[in-house]
């Protein structure tokens, strides 16, 4: 942010169970963790963490940290104006592709944060994050909930894409390497 001549504004964290009211409206546990740009808050549903551990086989404190870092990634995108640009695409037939690009960039930013905080990592932390990313890809979720995968309905990217973009941020450590918008969609 300093390099861009900007000042970073920290988001607030709201922890909830069952349902919560935000400036983006009411949300229940089915929504899962989310970021609301209207109030610049991260909303973390604790029941999602229980599901991540018990239903999805992705336990661990760093799996949880990855989820928070992904939502902070959305905050960064909001501050940089990326989210507003994607929001302008709503209603277009290819909007889901922009949504996927936004989500994969948030995964990249989570990996970037991890890169810059490696001194705090414990053995197995990266594997916890990768397991979580693998379990919350659109293909994995659709397969579990619908019994089939419908790529045109993706909004967050496949498990493989989510893991790859997290890893890319982790390995790179440079924000410039996280541009998911200026490459062919098939190469994401």
Write up this protein.
The chain is mainly alpha-helical and about 190 residues long. About 50% of the residues lie in helices and about 10% in strands. The strands form two sheets. The protein has a three-stranded mixed β-sheet. Strands 2-3 form a two-stranded antiparallel sheet. β4 and β5 form a beta hairpin. α2 packs across α4 (about 95-115), α4 packs parallel to α7 (about 160-170) and α5 packs antiparallel against α7 (about 160-170). The mean pLDDT is about 95.
**H/E order of the elements?**
EEEEEHHHHHHH
Tell me, briefly, the overall form: globular
- Proportion of residues in extended strands: 5-15%
Round the mean pLDDT to the nearest integer and report it. 96
The neighbouring-strand order within the major sheet is 1-5-4
Terminal residue distance: 25 Å
Structural class: mainly alpha
Model regions low in confidence, pLDDT < 50 over at least 5 residues: none
Q: Count all strands and give the number.
A: 5
Give the biggest sheet: 3 strands, mixed
If helices are DSSP runs of H or I spanning 4 or more residues, what is the number of helices? Answer: 7
Helix content: 40-55%
What Rg, in angstroms, do the CA atoms define? 16 Å
């Amino acid at each position: 942010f300093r390099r861009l001549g900007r000042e970073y504004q920290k988001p607030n964290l709201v922890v909830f169970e069952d349902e919560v009211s935000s400036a983006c409206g009411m949300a229940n546990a089915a929504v899962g963790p989310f970021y609301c740009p209207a109030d610049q808050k991260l909303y973390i549903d604790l029941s999602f963490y229980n599901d991540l551990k018990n239903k999805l086989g992705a336990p661990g404190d760093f799996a949880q940290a990855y989820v928070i870092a992904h939502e902070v990634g959305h905050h960064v995108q909001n501050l940089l104006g990326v989210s507003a640009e994607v929001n302008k695409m709503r209603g277009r037939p290819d909007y889901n592709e922009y949504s996927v690009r936004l989500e994969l960039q948030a995964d990249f930013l989570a990996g970037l944060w991890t890169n810059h905080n490696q001194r705090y990592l414990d053995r197995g932390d990266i594997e916890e994050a990768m397991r979580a990313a693998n379990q919350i890809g659109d293909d994995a979720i659709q397969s579990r909930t619908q019994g089939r995968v419908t790529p045109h309905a993706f909004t967050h990217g496949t498990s493989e894409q989510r893991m790859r973009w997290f890893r890319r941020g982790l390995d790179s450590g440079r924000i410039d390497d996280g541009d998911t918008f200026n490459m062919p969609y098939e190469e994401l």
